[in-house]
User: Fold these one by one.
Assistant:
Number 1:
Amino acid sequence: MDAIADDEHVLRHIPAGTLWQAAGPRITSANFQLRHDRAETGVSVTRLKITTPDRLLQLVGGSLEQGSRVAAARVSDVRALGLQVIPKPLDNDPGHAEIQSAHASLDDHACRRRLAQVFHFLP
């Protein structure tokens, strides 16, 4: 498993709807909430250098026509929040990675809000 460089970008699927996309448009903190009932260890993202935005939408079953969007963040910006970004390749997505708690916790709403602010919608 190769380490993820600080200058890499990760992508996150942002579903349609006001829970996920607020006016502006802006990415809401709800996109980064761990689902403990599913035993999630981190927030799923994918590495732009391996997986294209179109491929990400195919993998998650999202579509631009239905309002899905893809957002990107630089790994160094995520790490600066006290989070870690680690590779977790999947058979169908070798670029899959997770944003996980480190010095900061994804269980903290303020942390998730700051994380949402480092992600930006792709055109």
Number 2:
Amino acid sequence: MVRGPGFWFTFIYYTVTATTVAAIASAPLLFGGNIGLEALQTALPAGLMIGALGAYFNHSIAIDFATKNASEFRQQLTTTLTDLGFNRVADPEPDLADFEVYERGAIGKWFAGRVFVKLDRQQATIVGRAGLMRKLRDRLSQ
């Protein structure tokens, strides 16, 4: 099964990145251009906050749906993903042959990630970023 980065990996990634950017940005103003321990200590609270928000919305999760009619569910899912700006990828990579892959076009795909769908007769598994999966679960559960 396709699994993306989990909560802790995403948290660490966003925290380190945000702390580094905040330290570099604040160093000329607050510390005369010195990027040292003081700059990192000052930037760490902002990095932790941004890391927590980034991890909450962007870590990967999988949601499962029980389906009675796979083709009807596929149509509902495709319509919902189209409404959210996603289109099906015609020829995904060979290692993703078992999945239907959806992504946004052009620049949007870099910010929204991909959605991976695996449909069986009575179950659908959808993997993507947590924020999007929460929206999708709410729309498909109605």
Number 3:
Amino acid sequence: MTSLHNRGSKGGFKIGVDSKGHERREHRRHDLEQQGIKVSRWDGSKRAPKDFGKLVDLSAGGVRIRTTSSNVKADGQIRVKLELPDYAGICPFVDTSSATPTPKKEWVGWMAISRVIDVADSDEVEVGGRLVDMDEMDRGMLGLYLSTQPLAA
């Protein structure tokens, strides 16, 4: 098993639990690392998205990505493109740009980076953060989609 260390600190990786032992997360995380889903960094509509890394886990509120990119820092924001395969007949997102909502497989939006953690014995880092501008319809469909996936530890 790969051990994780906080970048620039001597402490180990900490689970989000409050003092009473309750998990702080609003949404359950789902392990998608085995699927090899790539995440793109989207720097604007004029440029094509660039490969950023691979999806480690995902919830309806946030994401964790493993990447070799070293130019990301905690407390920053990046624009990402998530493209997920449909599963069990469910598409993870909804296109509401027309009068009739239609299913879609991709979402482009902002990720607020809350942590950047070095992966031991590797030149990779894990970047974790919240998906901040996802509308409630997409968040609800993503939650339904993820309910069919295995939970992360």
Number 4:
Amino acid sequence: MSEDTGSARKKLRSHMMVEVILVAVLALYLLLARGQMVGDDVAFTMAGAGLMALVTYWTLHTLRDGLEVIALRGRLKH
């Protein structure tokens, strides 16, 4: 069981690192897009929409990993 918790923690840490990178890239995109109208450059708008979808998916995935770590800890205490 403790091996499960250790591997789940490692996976959570790596997913959190990717999360931080993705949020930083999204923040950079939003800074670049500040002066543009939505739809002026369709490729730029679609890239932003795709990036926002990816960040949302990855955030939910990381939250699931965090809940898994919490569940494994709770299982070890009982």
